[in-house]
Amino acid sequence: MEYQIPEKIRDLVPYDPISGSYRVRLDANESYLNLSQAQQKAIFHRLETEVSYNRYPDPMAAKLCAAFGDYYGISPDLVTAGNGSDELITLILGTMFDPSMKVGTFAQDFSMYRVYAQCYGVPTVTLQKNEDLTIDVDRTIAEVNRLGLSGLVFSNPCNPTSLGLRREEVLRLVQGVKALVILDEAYMDFWDQSVLDQVDQYDNLLILKTCSKAIGLAGIRIGFAVTNPRLSKLLKAVKSPYNVNTVSQIYGEELLKEKDYLRQAARSIRCQTEKLETMLRGLAAQYPALGQIYPSATNFVYLKPKDSKAIYQSLQQQGIAVRLMGDYLRICAGTEEEHQLLQQALIIALSSL
Ligand SMILES: *Cc1c(COP(=O)(O)O)cnc(C)c1O
Question: How far apart are CA 227 and CA 258, in angstroms?
Fold first, then answer.
């Protein structure tokens, strides 16, 4: 008997981030701050003394969710932990919708939303942003309701545009649509317009957070879904029981307890992002081919050069990885030294255009 691959996944290809060795990696929006030796030692001690590797993890990751709730000032009852927020996005799109429902995504947003929905046979509708890549809330509300969408998923601040929608506008959107709003606040630690404190006020708001960006634990894979008790209960029921491993739970717990360290880390990453943006604007004044630079509310800068591919390739040849996204480039903030190397490489790239 022959297995027929279903149409919905036939043309999918594996996610292929840049591989190979680069002097400078500014392509994946990670934090440039690794855990300190002291932080690692404290965690290793817990691993040595507490972990029974032969036992399953805590299925509800209770201590991890408590540490998350404590850091962000919300009730842990509203929190579900996941193996990265990617797992939660998959789970939410796959279980809270079915093929008779439609979910809205924006053109120029996190590309995985559409991929995951497609894997579950949930149809997506692409909504347009304004010419300047901002979101028109009134038009979006009207479209979501006119098209009868059951869900709307978007990132705020947005990856890749790095633009943010203000809190009042987000809440107006949530109030205006007859749909579940899945609001991905992966980068909100770098901005101050979170609606996390309002999540319990709505029956149609689900917020995603991650430890992969400002918290600096991309390698450990922890994400969170925060929503009202009714939807939280549902999420906990549909997730696989042991989705966050014991070791990751301990890493997350320990780091989320370090509130001062985390706030300081987010501030210094923001400071580097501002420096990166300033540097790029300076270069653009000298080399107009660097094109338009979007104001950043995140830990990366989005730009639209004259020839994105040529610049990308030149940087690549010089050992510097950034993200090419069609006509745009996305460059993540790095250390002072990495910015210097980037600047030198960009000058070489731009001089030869
Ligand atoms: C990086 C990122 C995530 C995080 O994914 P994890 O699986 O938690 O690492 C989620 N959403 C957006 C928009 C991102 O850019």
Answer: 24
